[in-house]
Amino acid sequence: MTMTATATFDSYSDNEEDVVLWRALRSYDPGRYVEISHVHSSGNGPSSGPIPSSGPEDTSPTRALYDRGWSGLLVTSDPELWARRKASRPRDVTVVGKASSQDQPAKPAAAADWRVSSLLGDLGWDATDLHAMIVDIESDAAGALEGAALARWRPWIVVVGASTCADPRCRAGLMSLMSRDGYDHTMFDGQSFWFVAKEHAQALADKLSYPARPFDGHTSRAQRTLNARIVELEASLAGLSDDVAAWRSKAVSAWASQRCALAERDEAAAQLAAQVEADTDAARACRDEIGRLRAELADLRSSTSWQVTAPLRRATSLLKRAT
Q: Which residues pair with 95 in a beta bridge?
């Protein structure tokens, strides 16, 4: 059976080393890898080392291969990293310790030293092709590579993190060691040195000569994180839009109710004003009528007939009281 590529390759490693590995190895059946990572003292260098966990946050360069059925040996001196890898990648053999040129038992407050060749021998992988070895440690890469016995185990591809060789002399020593063991240097991708075993150079060297590029058809971890954030923000925006629509509906309803209440109040006020005005006109008319009657009465009393008949009116009044 030959593995086929998925439509999109999801990269998990920081510098997309897994994209290059898959470009070179995608046509082969699921095989084996070795990944060596030690604790890094800081994250300020060009590579702060893989920090795998139990899902898409796993930044190991071999995670994507594992998801496609591959398996291998993982060596780390970080107990927490070891525990996370052991839980998230059960098909892998996970060892806590430091890859070195000699096997040494654990010391107080220090992990044991292991030769990778010893670990591979204990696993009985002598007849198994070892397709890739990734070495991402902060120091003594030469010791780790010496202990890997590359002349015997012959990993097809070897990737060495640049943080392991920070100065030119160390890099020159790395090139000399790899050449001695029969490996060709194919590229430096800005974070790692890439080598291919001479017996596989014809088939793989070209595919290992340039870093990940868009036409590799992959998605980066940063891209997926950004896309997830966009989806999250879009969902939040949709929720906010619904909230705004609900509040707008409530506001319009309240405004309409208020307008109706104001219209009713204005109508009542107009009716009251009209009644007040009518009552005022009626009161004014009464006052005018009283004034007119009083004027007529005054005119009557000042008239000659009123004065002539005054004795008669008094007499009539007295007779009424007497009877």
A: 75
Question: Of 163, 197, 219, which closes a domain?
Answer: 219
Smallest CA-to-CA distance from 97 within 82, 108, 83, 84 is with: 82
SS3 130: strand
Name the domain count of the chain. 2
Q: Rounded to an integer, what is the distance from CA 60 to the centroid of its chain?
A: 20
- Residue 273 and residue 206 share a domain: no
Q: Model pTM greater than 0.70? A: no
73-113: pLDDT as tens digits: 999 988 998 999 999 999 999 999 999 998 888 766 677 89
298 lies in a domain? yes
Length of the chain: 323
Which residues partner with 185 through β-bridges? Answer: 195
The verdict on 169 and 290 lying in the same domain is no
For 176-226, what is each residue's pLDDT tens digit? 999 999 999 999 998 999 999 999 999 999 999 999 988 888 887 777 777
> DSSP readout, 138-153?
SS-HHHHHHHHTHHHH
Beta bridge partners of 74: 35, 94
List the domain range (segments joined by +) for residue 269: 251-317
Pairing of strands 183-188, 192-197: antiparallel
Q: Which of 55-59, 175-179, 257-261, 304-308 has the highest mean pLDDT?
A: 175-179
